[in-house]
Amino acid sequence: MPATLNRNRILICLALALVTLGLYWPVTRHSFVDFDDDNYIAENPQVQAGLTWHGVVWAFDGAHAGNWHPVTWLSHMADCEMFGLNPGAHHLMNVLFHIANTLLLFLFLTQTTGAFWRSAFVAALFAWHPLRVESVAWAAERKDVLSALFWLLTLIAYAKFTTLAKIQNPKSKVFYALALFFFTLGLLSKPMVVTLPFVLLLLDVWPLNRFSLPSAKHLLLEKIPFFALSLAASLVTFIAQKSSGAVSPVELSTRLMNAAEAYPRYISKTLWPVDLSIIYPYRYDWPMTAVAGAVLLFGAMCLCGAADVPPAAVAVPGARAIKLFNADFESTRLLDGGIEGWEPTTHANQDGWVFALDDGTMHAGRASVRIRRSGNDPWGMLHQTLPAAGLGGETLELSAWLRTDRRQQFGCRRGDRR
For residue 393, what is the DSSP state? Predict the structure, then answer.
């Protein structure tokens, strides 16, 4: 990794951690509240006893407080084991979980998108946005920050799995198993994590760029274990909440209208976080114009997102491989219909980047394929359109995130006829 980028990454992580800690430090002086904190900690003898075998059995044996989330109970027990009923310490643990989630989000985004400063901005927005205060400053909401931790670890493990699977590295199975493991822990922390398999499918589209019509079936089959766990967690949660009286007899049409209207409400709260509350009363009389507008807004967002996603790599007839090299390494990979990776090797000294098809013909001059560099190491995002010999005037479009310290990725597709 280039020294400058490595230093910037460390500085960003330190800034995110320290500013987040400073913003939330006042919660260490807060006490427990009478809303859920009593059931979860202050008046719960099982939790106050700390980590005991009896407590572990209790956490997994049935629903408590209207939910089945044994890992969350174990987390509260661990706090009581270490800090007793010191509310400031319980709140501080929530803050530390939130800081860890912020750093994981930043690292995940930089690794999968390559957009360093945009990833830092998104992580900062996540860390400091007023919508996150409830989850951090409320002791009973440990389940939120804890499930987020396992959610992000699942994403990181899954991204690593896809990278290794592209080059048929046997270690990919280890990271697939880790993704399932973290996903299971997330479900045992908060059942809201049941939606994560759908997020993995979205990641296949962007930024992992794995989706194409021929690969759709494989990608769905790959997610079956995740969907199976989600289904099981959903059934357990429904039974647990129904037994505690938390399931209201609301008609399906009303639920769908509230779900549709929730999208613009979440967006509005994100853009203008006012009138926030820990509970938003259920509304039964949404006007159809508001629901229709919400559906149209959601559909427009989906279409805009789909239009902005680059197509996956496709096989290019007449060009069996593309070569990308500079002074630090040379890469040659077959265009087999997917995004490939390559290992850094040494090549003769050249200034900048040069592309060549496998027939050895150069198709872009050095001056026209410049990339921002740091020291002697290549680092940058490149999108280049190249004329391709033997394709009847068509072009090749190459997108590459270039580094010399780990496996690299590029995507290639056919362009329009010129």
Answer: T
Cβ-based neighbours of 270, under 8 Å, separated by 6 or more:
129, 131
380: left (phi over 0), alpha (psi -120 to 50) or beta: left
Strand partners, 287: none
Crossing angle for the helix pair 87-113 and 142-166, to the nearest 10 degrees: 20
Two tokens at 368?
A: 């026209």
Quick one: tokens of 43?
């008046």
Query: Which residue, chain included where needed, has tokens 């493991």?
Result: 181
Angle at 388 between CA 387 and CA 391, to 5 degrees: 125
Q: Which amino acid is at 390?
A: G
Report whether 171 contacts 181 (CB < 8 A): no
Q: Which residues pair with 333 in a beta bridge?
A: 322
CA distance 100 to 263: 27
Residue 187 tokens, joined: 């479900």
- pTM, whole model, 2 decimals? 0.74
Report the pLDDT averaged over residues 47-54: 96
Residue that is written with structure tokens 């592309």 in the block: 355
**Residue type at 412?**
C
Joined tokens for residue 286: 């949404």
- Of the candidates 319, 244, 257, the one whose C-alpha atom is nearest the C-alpha of residue 283 is 257
383, β-bridge pairs: 399
Residues paired with residue 357 on neighbouring β-strands, in sequence order: 322
Query: In this structure, what token pair is assigned to residue 149?
Result: 């931790």
**pLDDT greater than 70 at residue 125:** yes
Cβ atoms within 10 Å of 367's Cβ, excluding its own: 8
252-271 vs 288-307: helix crossing angle, rounded to 10: 60
Question: What is the spatial distance between Cα 126 and Cα 110, in angstroms, rounded to a whole number?
Answer: 15
Give the single-character DSSP code of 395: E
Query: Which pLDDT value is given to residue 3?
Result: 61
CA–CA distance, 304 with 5 (Å, rounded to integer): 32
Contacts of 317 (CB under 8 A, 6+ apart): 391
CA distance 51 to 80: 8
Identify the sign of the CA torsion 333, 337, 339, 340: negative
Q: Tell me: the pLDDT tens digits for 214-261? A: 889 999 999 999 999 999 999 999 888 887 776 777 777 777 888 777
| Cβ–Cβ < 8 Å for 153, 182 | yes
